[in-house]
Design brief:
globular, 5 helices, 63% helix, single chain
């Protein structure tokens, strides 16, 4: 497989997670996942920007995208797309949890954590699902390529979201 084909396959594989992560901001919502509670350290569990509406909207967007993509470029089936999208939203939430523990405010830059939390969550959930049901799994090469390209793609897409007013910070 040539490099361009590998890149495209990896990109199409992880797109449901990218779509979930990027679209959650469109479903801002008001119902915080952490219900406004603080953790035992006195800091918010996740923060005000993590809402149930955003989480569910992200999962739905990623899953719908996977369903549509399957008919054009069948790299992942809709079920795999669901686990990638769900895992992306869980990973993003866990990243937020870690940022609060590190005394980083919502939106404050956390290199690699900001770019990889949702991808690692997507990988975790699709691999866990793979123990129980048949899902499409990335090769090790695809997974590594996804991690590398995610840093660049996340920085570019976050800058665009900031430029059009969807995000408060460009990262």
């Amino acid at each position: 497989m040539d490099l361009m084909a590998l890149f495209l396959r990896a990109l199409f594989y992880i797109m449901p997670a990218y779509i979930a992560n990027a679209s959650a901001v469109l479903f801002k919502g008001k119902t915080r996942i952490d219900m406004g509670y603080d953790f035992f350290d006195g800091k918010p569990v996740l923060g005000r920007n993590k809402t149930i509406e955003g989480f569910l909207g992200g999962v739905a967007s990623g899953t719908i995208y996977a369903f549509l993509q399957y008919f054009v470029v069948p790299v992942v089936d809709p079920l795999t797309g669901f686990f990638l999208a769900f895992g992306a939203m869980v990973g993003d939430s866990l990243g937020s949890f870690v940022k609060r523990r590190l005394n980083l405010r919502s939106g404050e830059l956390a290199p690699f954590l900001d770019q990889w939390d949702f991808v690692l969550g997507a990988f975790l959930f699709v691999y866990l699902a793979g123990f129980f049901i048949p899902v499409a799994l990335p090769t090790m090469t695809e997974a590594l390529l996804i991690l590398v390209m995610t840093v660049v793609i996340a920085l570019l897409s976050n800058f665009v979201a900031y430029a059009v007013g969807l995000k408060e910070v460009p990262w």
